[in-house]
Structure formats: structure tokens, C-alpha cells
Amino acid sequence: MYKQAVFCFTNVACLFFSYSSSDGHLTVIPSAGLREQRKETIMRTASIIINIIIFICTLIVILSYFRKDGKWQMESGRIMFRFFTVLSNTFCAVTALMMAVSQISGTVSPFVLEMKYLGTVSVTVTFVTVFLFLIPFQGGVKKWLTGGNIYMHLIGPLLAIFSFIFLEKQKMTFGTAMTGLLPMLLYGAVYLYKVMFAPEGKRWEDVYGFNREGKWPIACVAMTILATLICIFFWLV
Fold this sequence. Notes:
By secondary structure, this protein is mostly helical.
């Protein structure tokens, strides 16, 4: 009878409490606290894995831009960095690596979190622009979702969005959320200059068609509104 009572008590104690020793002292952790710790560990591990995947996959795609006909072609790769798709995914990959390293070290600074947010907003702009504008009006699915584009336009952005919202995001002010506009605005200014106002011979092709029929003011306003809505979305979720 005594042994049965001890056995029952032990099982009940194990159900409600977890014990850990630190510096020679016994710490009693409620089971709810233990579950929360396990949840945080799982989320941190998942964040590390996804961010490393983002970095490696982006690096592989970018390196492929420098290969042509079985040879390394630096110029063909360099030209690709004219495009917001490549710049946004590269930026996101760098911030993903920063996040993974920080998660491994056990401390994520506000700066790293802000950088990951900016990178995530950037690829979200890429993702939404492709599906709302480029696929319907600029060549269809085959042009924008084949080869490396399927990662840069779809898989990479979705991985970044998922990891940030569900694994990394913390409460942010509206002002902080609006900093997500910066990458798009900076690129937009450069793109507008290089397409419209740069000297002949140094201009870029208007690959996105934003200046079609001289409607670049409409495109600028539309992209700013789109990016603002994306920032508000991340602020609200």
C-alpha cells in the first residue's frame, strides 16, 4: 500500500512539475512553464532551419546566374542585380543568415529582427508584384515561375513570410512597420532614374513594364500603396 501511494504521488508530481538543477540548487518549473520552454525551443529550431534553407537556396540560385554555357560569366550575373527580385532575395538571404546565427547564439538583437523584417517585406513585395501584375500582364506563369524564378518569386518569399510571422515576429509599432517601405523606395528611385533619366547607353531596359505608355507616375503610386499595405499586414498579424 505504501509503495503504491509513493508511485502515484511520483506520477502526479512528474505530471505537474519538472525539476532542473542549476548551480547546485533545485529549481521547480511548473509543467506549463516547461511546455512553453519546449515550444520556444521548437520555434527557435524551426527558425534556424528555415533561415539556413533560405540562405543556401538563394545562394545556389544566384551562383547559377553567373554560369552560362558551362562557363562562369561574371557580366551575365552582374546584370541580374538590376532586378528587384534578385536584390530583395539576396537581402532577405543575408538577413536570414543573421537571424539563424543569432538564434544559435541564443540572443536576437532588435537590429537583427528589424533587418529580417525588412528582408521579409522586400521579398513579399516581389511575391505580390509577380502574382498581381507580372504574371497576368507580363508573360504569364511560364516566364515568371520556371527555373530559379520559382524559388525567387514563390518558394523563397513564402519561407521568409512563414518564418517571420510564425517563428520570429514580435510586437512592433506602426512606425517600425512602415520602415518596410525603405527597400522598395530606394530601389524605385534608382530604377526610375536608370530607366527614364540615365544617359543613353547606360539606361536599363524597363523589364517590369512600369513605364509602359509613359505611365510611370501611376506605377510609382501603385507600388507605394502596395508596399504600404504589405507593411500594415505585417503590423497587424
